[in-house]
Specification:
The chain has helices at 18-31, 38-44, 49-60, 66-84, 91-101, 113-119, 146-155, 169-178, 208-211, and strands at residues 5-8, 105-108, 132-133, 162-166, 181-184, 200-201. It has 223 residues and is of the alpha/beta class. GO terms for molecular function: hydrolase activity.
Length: 223
Amino acid sequence: MFVRGVALDMDGLLFDTERIYFRVGQVLMERRGHTFTLELQQKMMGRVGLSAIGQMIEHHSLDDDPVALLAESDDVYGDLLLGELRPMPGLDAWVDRLRESGLPFGLATSSRRKFVDMILPTTGWSDELAFVLTGDDVTHGKPNPEMYLKAAERLAMPAKQMLVLEDSGNGAAAAVSAGAVTVAVPNEHTRGHEFSGVHLVADSLEDSRLWGLLPEPGTEIPA
């Protein structure tokens, strides 16, 4: 097994945004007399925009218009994002390892483009990304494989030669379904998720088993 490119999820994998999303859910549900739970958050993880909001509406039998509720969610999230944004443990070391490997790597996130455009400038490596795919670029969100099939297209390689890192069950299912070499890196919100079919469940971005899937610096990458 060898890989020639890498696709990275963002929320909960590179940045601790799930904590912010949970706060957004709390605010929205408190306004409607409901409680936002971890169970509901897990249903929403990895889903794109209106699909995620649909889970919220269905879960609490809300009568809100999905488009209006999504806009309200965006307003709350945008207000919290930059002040609350934190990198996941080991992010800088993992990016350094990616650079050393010589493999092209890109972002494949269900987040909206406008929020990705807020987050990436806070990093020192956004200009090194081979591609950026967001929830605005797909019709079907995770667990549908569309996101990772498109990522493989952007990398100009078969999905089976692409390494995908995901933190959630929905995201991992999308990558596995696309045929990618999938590594789950669960966080405190997703440790109980199902990760069927993944190559590895890593402890963190600094897990030596994960690093070992990348070629050593100076290794010639097969065409």
